[in-house]
Design a protein that fits this description.
With 252 residues, the protein is an alpha+beta fold. 50% of the residues lie in helices and 19% in strands. It has two domains: 2-73, Orthogonal Bundle (Arc Repressor Mutant, subunit A); 75-242, GAF domain (Beta-Lactamase, 2-Layer Sandwich), CATH 3.30.450. The chain has helices at residues 2-17, 22-29, 33-45, 62-74, 77-92, 134-141, 145-160, 168-181, 218-223, 228-242, and strands at 19-20, 49-50, 58-60, 95-102, 105-112, 127-129, 184-187, 194-202, 208-217. This is IclR family transcriptional regulator.
Amino acid sequence: MAILEKSGAIIAALEDIGEATAQELADTVNEPVSSTYRLLASLSSIGWVDSKFRRGYFRLGVRFVRIGSRLEDRLSVRDACTAALVSLRRDTGATAFLCFRRGDAAVCVERLDGRDVRSLAMRLGDSLPLYRGAAPLAILAFLPEGEREAVLERFAVRRRDGEDVPGDKVLRDAIDLIRARGYSISDEDVTPGIGAVGAPVFNHRGELEGAISVSGLRNAIILGPPDVATLTVEAAADASRALGFGEGLENS
C-alpha cells in the first residue's frame, strides 16, 4: 500500500507540474531521490510515466493519459449526478436541477419536478445567464479566476449595450459571498414567489463541472425548515464524489 501511495503522489505531482526531474519530484513528494528513481522506473515500464521526450525529465505517459480519457468518456455526468438529485428532491419536496455552463449562460440538462410547486422556468434545455438564478450564479462564482474575469468583462459590455445586467460590484460581492459559504441563493430574481439554492459540482480533476440547484416556494426554500442550503451543498458534494472528486483536490 505504501508503494501505491508513493506512486500516486508522483502521478499527482506530475499532473500539477507537467514535467520534472527525479530530484524535483523527490523534493515534492518528500522521498529520497533513490526511491523516487525506482518508482519512476516502475511507472515508466507500464507506460504511466514517459522519460524519452527530454533527457533527465519525466512527465505523464501516453498510456496513463489514455486511461484517464477513457474513464472520463465513460462517465456520464448526468447519470452520475442522478442519485444526488433524487435525494435532494426527496428531502426538500422541491424541484431539483442539474445545469452545465454554455458560454455565458447555464443550461438545464436534468430536472426532477418536486411535489409542491412546478415553475415553468428552466425546463430541460432552457438556459439563464450566469448572473441570474441559483445554479448559474454558483457556476459563475466557482469558475477559474481567469474565466470568471473574462465573463465579467463581457457582462460589462452587455451592460453598456443596455442589457439589464447587475452592476459589477453587485456581481463581485455576490461571488465573494457564494464562494465564502459554498452555495448561491436566488431570491425571486427569476420567478416571483420562487426561491432557489445552488451549489457547484466538480469532476475527478477538481474542475468545475456544473451546478445542482433546488427551487420552490420562496419561504420554504430560503427560510425552511428543512435547511435547504445544507441539503443542496450535500447533494452537490455527493454528485462530485460520484464524478471522482476527492480529497487533495481544490476548486479554483
